Amino acid sequence: MSCKPVVIRDDVLNDLATRFLINIPDEDKDDPLKLCSHIEVAHWFYLDLIRPEDPALPGCSMKEFMATIFKHCPFLVRDSVARDLDTLQSQWKTLKYRRPTRGAIILNQDLTKCLLVQGYPASTSWGFPKGKLERGESDQDCAIREVYEETGFDIRALIRSEHYLECESRDSERASRMYIIPGSPGGDRDIQWFRVEDLPRFKKDLTTRQNLGKNPSSFFMIIPFIRSGAHPYSAEEVDIQLPESPWCGRWREEDHSSSLGCVSQALCPSPAHEEILKLSLSLLPPSPSEDS
């Protein structure tokens, strides 16, 4: 292996192997690419839950973590490709980036702000809460799960199967679908509301730099969706303005009062996340209209 393992205590590696690797199906152990997906889950668990409790533990990339796991659990190295870490990671990343992603565009009550989460670890990019579609999982269930995992907000009662935007990446042939969730009352990743009108619609859009002091490239993951949508949204007429999207007309014709402002308390974010959202709202710079 060309990548050196990192030094993680045996008790931590044993715990991770027991939780995520030892009891997976034999067919997944025999398929190095499927095995990598299980190792990725263990990697996130290590970074998100174990390491914050013990900062002395080292941080590591996915590739370094894979090398560490294969060294600690040699019984997982069942195929020659697993012995060539560079080849394995390259094949796995290709497969991973072709997997569809599902998430949500969560808008506030007057539809002027949307919720974004910051990439992890040590990333300056912002994007909608989303994640990979798992085997046997429906599009909606994936969006619900990923949004809850990343924000603590349960959209189960708000999501509608026909209300979504979808973009397909030409280079990876991957479709990314975002469900529209209007009327929201408000991890270590930062979670913040952004005005829709401040978000970039193309790579060199200066609006974001002028209004937020951030590079448009920090929002590269959401540009296709912002470019596709109404900009800004109107609370009186919720219209994403996509002629090819059949739900646009129905949205205008239907009564959405139940979706706008009538959110059950049980669906609100947990107190910690709710506080983050309120703080972020208060820290947003005033829009030009508010200054005048």
Automatic annotation (TrEMBL):
GO terms for cellular component: P-body. Residues 97-220 form the Nudix hydrolase domain. It catalyses: a 5'-end (N(7)-methyl 5'-triphosphoguanosine)-ribonucleoside in mRNA + H2O = N(7)-methyl-GDP + a 5'-end phospho-ribonucleoside in mRNA + 2 H(+). Its main location: cytoplasm. It is found in: Cytoplasm. It comes from the Eukaryota. One of its GO terms (molecular function) is 5'-(N(7)-methylguanosine 5'-triphospho)-[mRNA] hydrolase activity. Its cofactor is Mn(2+). Keywords: Cytoplasm, Hydrolase, Manganese, Metal-binding, RNA-binding. Belongs to the Nudix hydrolase family. DCP2 subfamily. This is mRNA-decapping enzyme 2. It comes from Geodia barretti (Barrett's horny sponge).
